[in-house]
Structure formats: structure tokens, C-alpha cells
Design brief:
With 148 residues, the protein is α/β, with parallel strands linked by helices. The protein is built from 3 helices and 7 strands, in the order E-H-E-H-E-E-H-E-E-E. The protein has one domain: Rossmann fold (3-Layer(aba) Sandwich), CATH 3.40.50.300.
């Protein structure tokens, strides 16, 4: 069962970045963060801010892994993995991009955009971040965090 940890409405991209930075400071080695939301909702904005915070480099280059499917970064928590599974055709393809390595070490953090592509490979224990549009507020996003 998923426990709702936090809910908020972000009124701008800057507020989403600020929340991601606060959220990042609560993560511990071994956490898996699943980022849910439609195209253009801000999953990559959230992930980029989180990774920059965890690496301690405010202007660090954090390309979207849309084409590479995975990027990794060194941090004090260990290796940080950023997966973008949008282009995954079959969930088993995740094994070709470091999925087992990211989950088996018990250190670092794995961020996963488009986790629904994992099907039955979704981790049982994870933190889920849902980002969605707010009616009649084009720059606002509802952000809900749950833990399972």
C-alpha cells in the first residue's frame, strides 16, 4: 500500500526546482525514485534539480537520458542513476542499461522517468513522485509523493 508523504502545488518551474532540492536532501543511499507524469509535466526538470543538488554542483550539465536511456553521476551517496524509459519497447531491455547494477548495490539513488514501462519489474519499495497539470493554470503542477 502506498503512503502519501507529501502533496503540493508548484506555481512555477522555479518552485518545482526548489521542491526537488529539498526532496533530494531527504534521500538516502539505496532509494529508488519513480517519476510519473505526462510529457511536458516537468519530470526531467525535477530530476535535473535533484541530481544537481545531490552532486553539489548547481550548474552541472544534466542531459535528459531520452536517447541514451541512462546516465550516471558520482555523489556522496554513491552512484546516482537517471533512467528515462520512454523509448523502452520491452521491460526486459532495462537489463541492458544498468538496471540490476543500479538496484543491487544498496548505495546511490536511482531516478526513473516513465517507470510504468517497467511493468512487472517495478521495485516493490520505492518513492513515487507524481507530477500533473493543474486545471486552468498552465505553469502550475500538482506534485504528490508516496512511499511503498
Amino acid at each position: 500500500m502506498k503512503e502519501v508523504v507529501f502533496e503540493l502545488v508548484s506555481l512555477s518551474e522555479e518552485e518545482t526546482v526548489s521542491f526537488a532540492q529539498v526532496f533530494a536532501k531527504e534521500l538516502v543511499a539505496g532509494d529508488v525514485v519513480l517519476l510519473y507524469g505526462d510529457l511536458g509535466m516537468g519530470k526531467t526538470v525535477f530530476a535535473r534539480a535533484l541530481l544537481r543538488c545531490l552532486c553539489g554542483i548547481a550548474d552541472m550539465e544534466v542531459p535528459s537520458p531520452t536517447f541514451t536511456l541512462a546516465q550516471s553521476y558520482d555523489s556522496d551517496l554513491g552512484l546516482l542513476w537517471h533512467f528515462d524509459l520512454y523509448r523502452l519497447c520491452d521491460s526486459s531491455e532495462v537489463y541492458e542499461i544498468g538496471w540490476e547494477e543500479a538496484l543491487s548495490a544498496g548505495e546511490g539513488v536511482a531516478l526513473v522517468e516513465w517507470p510504468e514501462r517497467l511493468d512487472c519489474l517495478l521495485p516493490e519499495q520505492a518513492i513515487s513522485v507524481y507530477i500533473s497539470a493543474v486545471d486552468n493554470q498552465p505553469d502550475s503542477r500538482a506534485i504528490k509523493v508516496t512511499r511503498s
